[in-house]
Amino acid sequence: MRILLVGAGLSGAVIARALAEAGHRATVIDARAHIAGNCHTERDAETGVLVHVYGPHIFHTDDEGVWAYVNRHARFRPYRNRVKSTAQGAVYSLPINLHTINQFFGRTMRPDEARRFIEAQADTSIADPRTFEEQALRFVGPDLYRAFFKGYTEKQWGCSPADLPASILKRLPVRFNYDDNYFFHRFQGMPEDGYTPVVASILDHPGIDVHLDTPFVSDMAARHDHVFWSGPLDGYFGYDLGRLGYRSLTFERFRATGDWQGCAVMNYGDPDVPFTRITEHKHFAPWETHEGSVLYREYSKACGADDTPYYPIRLVREKALLSQYVARAAGTGNVTFVGRLGTYRYLDMDVTIREALNAADAFLHAVQANARPPVFSADPA
Ligand SMILES: Cc1cc2nc3c(=O)[nH]c(=O)nc-3n(C[C@H](O)[C@H](O)[C@H](O)COP(=O)(O)OP(=O)(O)OC[C@H]3O[C@@H](n4cnc5c(N)ncnc54)[C@H](O)[C@@H]3O)c2cc1C
C-alpha cells in the first residue's frame, strides 16, 4: 500500500519504519526544513554546541522495548536530569527534596523530622482540594508553594493556580531524602549526537521517502491508501470549529563564554522574573568540550495562529471542543491521527514511540482483516 505520513517527528518516523519493514511504501512529509519534529537538535555554527532547538529533551523510560528500540538507532550516554531553581534570592535543588527543605528553612532535619515539619506546614483545613492551589497548600504549605509553585505555574500556564484543577499536582511533590534525579525511570540517557540522527536512522529504509518543506495539501490524501496525521487535530479540519488551546514557548537565544550557569536547567519561580527557565545546552552533552556556550531564556505564552503549539491546555472549554473534533475524525475515511498534536495530549518521547509502534501494528492487523484502521493511535479523551 502507499502510505502518507504527515510529520517527520518521532510519530511519523516510527510508523513509517514499521510499515516499510512490512513491505509498504511510506512517504513522509514535513512542513519544516528538518526531520525529528520538536526533538530536533542541531549544532550551533559558532560554538559547536549541540542545541535542543525546541527546548530541552531528556530521554527517560521504564519501557524496555522502547529503550532497546532507540538504542538500535543511536548510542545513548548516561544522563541524569538535575534541575535547580532560583527563587527569593537563593538557588535550590529541585524537585523539592530534603536538601531544598533544609536549605529553605535553614534547618538540618533528618527525613522523619522533615516529614513531620512539612505536615505541620500543610493546610489541613483543606479537606478535599479542588484546585492546583489548594492541592499544593494541602501538600506543602504556603511558603514552599509561593517559592516553587505559584509564580512558576502562573508564568507557565498564564493563569492563577486557583483556576487550574487539583489533578495537575497528583502526588506529593516532595522527597524526604537527597535524591535530586528529576525522573524515576529505570532507563535514562541522551543520544550521543542528539535526537535528529536517531530519527534519521529510523527513516533510513529503502521503503521510505522523505520530503521536507512540504506542508500537507488535501489532494495528497487521495493519492495514498492511508494517511497517518501527526499534525494538530484541529489543523486537519482547517480549524473550522475553532482552535484547541495550547501554550506556546518563545526562546531568547544568547551565547556566552565558558560555563554561564553551571547546570543544564535553572528554573525561575519568582513572579517578577518574566521567563520560566534558562537552559544551557552544552550541559546536555557533558562528554563534549566547548569554549563557547548557547543558552535559551524560555518564555511561555498563549498560542496564537502563527505560533508553534507546545502544551495542550485541556481545560473544560478545550475538552468540549476536543470531543467535537473527535466526532469529526470518526467520520474520516482513511486517516489515523497520531502523536502529541494528532491526539491533543502531552506525550513524552518514550510514550510517543510506544504508541507509534502500536498504531503501526493496529494498522497492519486491520489491513489483514479488511477492516478500517483505528481513527486514533490512543484515545484523545
Ligand atoms: C518544550 C518541550 C520539552 C519536552 N521535553 C521532553 C523530555 O525532556 N523528554 C521527553 O521524553 N519528551 C519531551 N517532550 C515531548 C516530545 O517533544 C514529544 O514526545 C515528541 O516531539 C512527539 O513527537 P511527534 O512526532 O508526535 O510530534 P512532533 O515532534 O511535534 O512532530 C510533528 C511534526 O508534524 C509536522 N507537521 C504538523 N503539521 C503539518 C502539516 N500540515 N504538514 C506537514 N507537516 C506538518 C510538524 O512540523 C512536526 O515536525 C517535550 C516537549 C516539549 C514541547
Automatic annotation (TrEMBL):
Organism per entry: Oceaniovalibus guishaninsula JLT2003
Keywords: FAD, Flavoprotein, Isomerase
Chain ranges of the UDP-galactopyranose mutase C-terminal domain: 147-346
InterPro entries: UDP-GALP_mutase, UDP-GalPyranose_mutase_C
Top-rank taxon, per record: Bacteria
Pfam family, one: GLF
Matching Gene3D superfamilies: NAD(P)-binding Rossmann-like Domain
GO cellular component assignments: cytosol
Lineage: Bacteria, Pseudomonadati, Pseudomonadota, Alphaproteobacteria, Rhodobacterales
Cofactor(s) listed in the protein's UniProt record: FAD
SUPFAM superfamilies given in the database record: FAD-linked reductases, C-terminal domain, Nucleotide-binding domain
Family: Belongs to the UDP-galactopyranose/dTDP-fucopyranose mutase family.
A GO molecular-function descriptor: UDP-galactopyranose mutase activity
Name of the featured protein: UDP-galactopyranose mutase C-terminal domain-containing protein
